[in-house]
Each structure stands twice: as structure tokens, then as C-alpha cells.
Amino acid sequence: MLRLNHTSLHKIKVHAMTTYPEECCGVLMGRKDDKGTIVCDVLALKNTQQENRTHRFLITPQDYAVAEQEANKEGVDVIGFYHSHPDHPAQPSPFDLEHALPWWSCVIVSVDKGQPSRIKSWLLKDDRSSFEEEKIDVTDGHFKHSM
């Protein structure tokens, strides 16, 4: 289960709206515990894909390194990524399957005509054959950054 507070969910939705009709992308920062994955904060990143940005995103190694540093500063880890699907369902594409990393949450927000409509989280199976949907629990609470 992915536990996400309203503040982090709001940041993802705003990022998706402001980049529409292009895909947005960012990292999920938090920690894992016996109940699942806790998102303490999200960090919006720039989509550096040069072409077809309405259907693709790219995070540079330099931007990923900045995200890791930010998470370390907050006392948490990078635990996954998020991105948007403009005018498409919040389901992983074949491209997402090819580029996903196991054990990390992959949050996808569907943006219909500029408005976020559905948000889902996915986990890549260990054999990399497909994704399984990960339940999202949205809470009013704020998760502490430190363990």
C-alpha cells in the first residue's frame, strides 16, 4: 500500500496541470515500513525529453542525483517516481514497463483536457513481466520525515 498525504497528492496534481499537454515527472520521497510505503514529500522534476513530450518523459542522471540529495537532507529515501498521462488512462504503457525499476512505486496521474482525473500507483513484478496495481491510501495527516 502507498500512503500519500493530501499535500503530496496536491503537488502531483498541480504539476500535472501546469505541464499539460506534456507529461510531467517527479520523485516520491519517503520510507517503507511493515504497512507499505509512506510518501513524505514529492519533488517535481523537469521533463528533459526532447521529442514527443506528450507521451514520454526523461529524468537526467543529474536531476536524479539532486533528488537523492534532497531526500537524504530530509532523512528519507527516493521510493519511486510519478508522471502524468495527458489524455490517457492512469495505466502503465509498454514504454513505462520497459523503463520501470522493481520495488519502487510508479504513480501515474491521468490528465483529461488539462484536469487531473485519476491517479494510480503501480509496482513492477520482480520478473519485470508486468505491473500490479498498488492501493493508494490518501490521508489528512503529515508524515514525519525522520524515521
Quick structural gist:
23% of the residues lie in helices and 40% in strands. The chain has 147 residues and is of the alpha/beta class.
Q: What would you call the shape? A: globular
Q: Could you give the order of the helices and strands?
A: EHEEHEHEEEE
Count helical runs.
Answer: 3
Helices and strands: which structural class?
A: alpha/beta
Question: CATH homologous superfamily name?
Answer: Cytidine Deaminase, domain 2
What is the domain total for the residues? 1
- Radius of gyration from the alpha-carbon trace, in angstroms: 14 Å
The level-1 CATH class: Alpha Beta
Number of strands: 8
The rounded distance between the terminal residues' Cα atoms is 18 Å
- The appropriate CATH architecture is 3-Layer(aba) Sandwich
Overall pLDDT metric: 93
Could you characterize the architecture of this molecule?
The structure is a single chain. With 147 residues, this protein is α/β, with parallel strands linked by helices. The protein has one domain: Cytidine Deaminase, domain 2. 23% of the residues lie in helices and 40% in strands. The chain is built from 3 helices and 8 strands. The protein has an 8-stranded mixed beta sheet. Strand 4, helix 3 (94-99) and strand 5 (105-112) form a beta-alpha-beta unit. The two termini are 18 Å apart. 34% of the residues are buried. The mean pLDDT is 93.
